[in-house]
Amino acid sequence: MARATRAVVTDDSHFMRSVISDMLEESGVEVVAEARNGREAVSAVREHEPDVVTMDVEMPEMNGIEAVEEIMATTPTPVLMLSAHTDENADVTFEALEKGAVDFFTKPGGEVSMEMSRLEDQLVEMVQSVAEVDVRVGPGTDATTPQEAYTEAIEAAEASATGPAAGADTGTVAEPAAYVDNPTLLLGSSTGGPTVVERIMAELPPAADLRVLIVQHMPDGFTGRFAERLDSRSDYDVAEATDGARIGGGEALVAAGGKHMEVSNYARGRLRVALTEAPPENSVRPAVDVTMRTAADCITDPMVAVILTGMGTDGADGVRAVARAGGRVIAQNEASSAVYGMPKRAVETGVVDDELALESITDAVLDALTEA
């Protein structure tokens, strides 16, 4: 019989700690300790060595970001952030992901106990999924933390953007002779995805002149902040998608939380999207499948679809459609994925051309879009 997932629940609200602990215990998760602040969480992790920690963002004495950083530095343990649905908390949550947190869950407003009960299955699924992540080794690196891997990736991308010193061997993406005209890149991700998407976007050279569509499973209120972060960390103009938005080369759109992003039109190298509130697919909205399927229906120029880390099956139908349309399909490999769910399902379709470590994905995308 498999051992129950062991969790530390951290929140400065006694009521919220009780609600979360009861939900987890009822679902078979063993809550080994509760913590009122980050300092207590750090101590509880050291004492109990849990499989996962749920971490509030704003707390007295030591906040969630400080606690995540300390945990990753001393006793690396998967952390699920619990964030309020505000712009300020969105910024702090992304910072926590940079420090090594695996994913986040949005705490409801209004009548908290009723809303949490409605979201119980989602919370439990995320806790159990995050608990399976090995945070002791960062994606594609040796004996390093996710925070270090992320920092190294951003520094490498920034060095590439400014250009290497004469004769330097930087290991960055080499500029090919020429790219194909009007290429489109489709990125789909979920758990563990934000920092992975940031890395890929930071590595894309302006010369490729890509049109990029990004679907990251993320609630409304966070996707706008995510787009702003991508915009500031890449050479591409990145924005949250709006209904009817159009992009050309060197531009990117992030699917808005709570809405599907469909490609509604494509002509002369420019694509247009429509946002819909159609029912969720694969239990999510936005869904990667919707964007990739409609892109395959509309786009006639070269196209690459990439399925990145995440739990669930979203993206499998989408990559089938892209492959049928003649596009190239890439999946992140298991070793570099925080959660090998979405990439695994994509590989199982039989249409994936390359299954690669994170550090090789940008190279593969650019190779697929280089003129022979």
Automatic annotation (TrEMBL):
Reported function: Involved in chemotaxis. Part of a chemotaxis signal transduction system that modulates chemotaxis in response to various stimuli. Catalyzes the demethylation of specific methylglutamate residues introduced into the chemoreceptors (methyl-accepting chemotaxis proteins or MCP) by CheR. Also mediates the irreversible deamidation of specific glutamine residues to glutamic acid.
Active site positions: S190, H217, D314
Lineage: Archaea, Methanobacteriati, Methanobacteriota, Stenosarchaea group, Halobacteria
Pfam families on file: CheB_methylest, Response_reg
UniProt similarity note: Belongs to the CheB family.
Biological process according to GO: chemotaxis
SMART domains listed in its UniProt record: REC
Keywords of this entry: Chemotaxis, Cytoplasm, Hydrolase, Phosphoprotein
Protein modification: Phosphorylated by CheA. Phosphorylation of the N-terminal regulatory domain activates the methylesterase activity.
Predominant location category: cytoplasm
EC number: 3.1.1.61, 3.5.1.44
Catalytic activity: [protein]-L-glutamate 5-O-methyl ester + H2O = L-glutamyl-[protein] + methanol + H(+); L-glutaminyl-[protein] + H2O = L-glutamyl-[protein] + NH4(+)
Gene3D superfamilies: 3.40.50.2300, Methylesterase CheB, C-terminal domain
Record GO cellular component, one term: cytoplasm
NCBIfam families per record: PRK00742.1
Organism annotation: Halorientalis regularis
KW Cytoplasm (keyword) present: yes
Domain Response regulatory: 6-122
Subcellular localization, as worded in the UniProt entry: Cytoplasm
Residues modified as 4-aspartylphosphate: D56
Domain commentary: Contains a C-terminal catalytic domain, and an N-terminal region which modulates catalytic activity.
GO molecular function: phosphorelay response regulator activity; protein-glutamate methylesterase activity; protein-glutamine glutaminase activity
PANTHER family from the UniProt entry: PROTEIN-GLUTAMATE METHYLESTERASE/PROTEIN-GLUTAMINE GLUTAMINASE, PROTEIN-GLUTAMATE METHYLESTERASE_PROTEIN-GLUTAMINE GLUTAMINASE
Stated name of the protein: Protein-glutamate methylesterase/protein-glutamine glutaminase
Keyword Hydrolase carried by entry: yes
Catalytic EC class: hydrolase
All residue ranges annotated as the CheB-type methylesterase domain in the record: 178-372
